[in-house]
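Journal club prep — side note

Before the paper discussion, L.F. wants everyone to see what a predicted structure for a comparable chain looks like in token form. Sequence:
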Amino acid sequence: MANIDYYLGMISPWSYLAGDRLEKIAARHGATITYKPLDLMQLFDRTGGARPADRHPSRNEYRNQEIPRWAEFLNMPMQMKPAFFPTNMAPSSYAVIAAQQAGGGNIAGLVQGFLHACWVEDRNIADDDVIRDLLTKHGFDPKLADSGLLTGADIYSRNLDEAVQSGAFGSPFYIVRETGQRFFGQDRLDLLDRHLASL
């Protein structure tokens, strides 16, 4: 059985566009997924990337064409200028980390719920009420929004260190533990699928 480490920023448009394809691929191959939310801006800083606000205009102009192209291609609703973007990624990340450790709910649904809330619903995923609502909707105790803060903060920081050490540099980033094969971007999911089929 393969194990996939999924590094992501909770406000990444590309992670939103991945939808539930990773989960379907993992289910098809009997693979497990460990969600590893991290501070995406610090990941850019530490791996030679540039934060969106610091990129050359040509790069941002291309990004502003490419994101809606992919949304249309994937038939996914999406707003290019959500009301709460960028927002603090830490609170939603802590909630995902705490929920994953607690178990008993739909962790994939929770991750996708946060991304959908940001990019479709104009909700602030750093807001405590939004976090509690999404935890509840996906089968988790809403109190995890508070009780998981200390553990969440520690693992959130460790996820960043692990990502840098493992060769991740953006979001979504998938690493198959058993082979060390790395896949960057929602447009590499078909290649991940092929790789898992070869194991």
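L.F.'s comment for the group: The radius of gyration is 16 Å. Keep this in mind when we get to the figures.
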